[in-house]
Write a structure and sequence with these properties.
Elements (H helix, E strand, L loop, with lengths): L9 E7 L3 H12 L2 E6 L5 E7 L2 E7 L9 E7 L3 H10 L3 E9 L3 E7 L5 E7 L14 E8 L2 H12 L2 E8 L4 E9 L2 E8 L12 E7 L3 H10 L3 E9 L2 E7 L5 E7 L4
Parallel strand pairs: 1-4, 5-8, 9-12, 13-16
Antiparallel strand pairs: 1-5, 2-3, 3-4, 6-7, 7-8, 9-13, 10-11, 11-12, 14-15, 15-16
């Protein structure tokens, strides 16, 4: 199945880790994923996780030795080179210049002004995820940043995202959650760094969310598989959520979306 998403919409995530076999075992046990390798010519081998035959995420070694295991977010674009120009004009950094990934697509890696890394994917043969917003697949991406106002300006200039804000009541403070709209669809979110001890110089980051049928069961299974539950299951306006680390230390979220009002 080919699922084509609009330019400016997150359409892929992948995991960079030095323990490829361990990642295969963990995510197969947690999310029911299968894994198949895709030769990449001189660049080595890239693996595709799939759920019931539909591609949901990628897996590969880190770009540099010693790099921590991490999930990366890709945003679909019609032109990776133009996206790089917009990133630079908006005050971001081009970490990896646009390049062709064989005949599959063209990509680049950027950082926003607060340091949050993200990538763009210009589809060719490989369109991106073939399953979204279903159990075992990507359902949301969220930026945590100390500079929400700067992020609003940056991502509007780069992708045309329009911010919509709503307050979130916390026991000791009120936070503002931002949802980004592209046309008539919400495509991503943003949270402030609400930890008062956030170290100076620590970059902002993008988090990935995978949908599951039962967050509590997923958290328990994560522990059984050698992972760590960083934030236990909790109720939020969007649904029931937990923050997990895989055994290699890569952080991600699992969520069971709430019923629409």
């Amino acid at each position: 199945m080919v699922l084509t998403v609009e330019s400016g919409t997150p359409n892929w995530v992948d995991l960079a880790t030095s323990d490829l076999d361990g990642a295969r075992r963990f995510y197969s046990g947690l999310l029911g994923w299968n894994c198949r390798e895709v030769p990449q010519g001189d660049t080595g081998t890239y693996a595709i996780f799939d759920k019931d035959g539909s591609a949901v995420a990628g897996l590969g070694p880190p770009a540099t030795p010693g790099q921590p295991s991490t999930w990366s977010v890709y945003v679909s674009t019609d032109d990776a080179d133009s996206a790089a120009d917009r990133v630079q004009s908006a005050g971001g950094d081009v970490l990896v210049d646009p390049f062709d990934v064989t005949d599959q697509g063209r990509m680049a890696v950027f950082a926003d002004p607060a340091g949050a890394a993200f990538s763009v994917w210009q589809p060719k043969l490989m369109k991106g995820a073939e399953l979204l917003n279903a159990p075992g697949s990507l359902t949301w991406n969220e930026l945590t940043t100390p500079d929400q106002e700067g992020a609003k300006e940056f991502y509007e200039l780069v992708f045309g995202w329009q911010p919509e804000e709503e307050p979130i009541e916390q026991p000791d403070q009120e936070l503002i959650y931002t949802s980004w709209r592209l046309g008539n669809r919400f495509v991503a979110g943003m949270m402030p760094t609400f930890d008062p001890n956030w170290p100076d110089g620590l970059p902002a980051y993008w988090a990935v969310f995978f949908e599951v049928d039962d967050v509590d069961a997923a958290a328990a299974r994560c522990r059984d598989l050698g992972g760590v539950v960083m934030v236990p299951p909790r109720e939020l306006p969007a649904g029931r959520l937990a923050v997990l680390n895989d055994p290699q230390g890569a952080s991600f979220c699992v969520i069971t979306p709430g019923s629409p009002d």
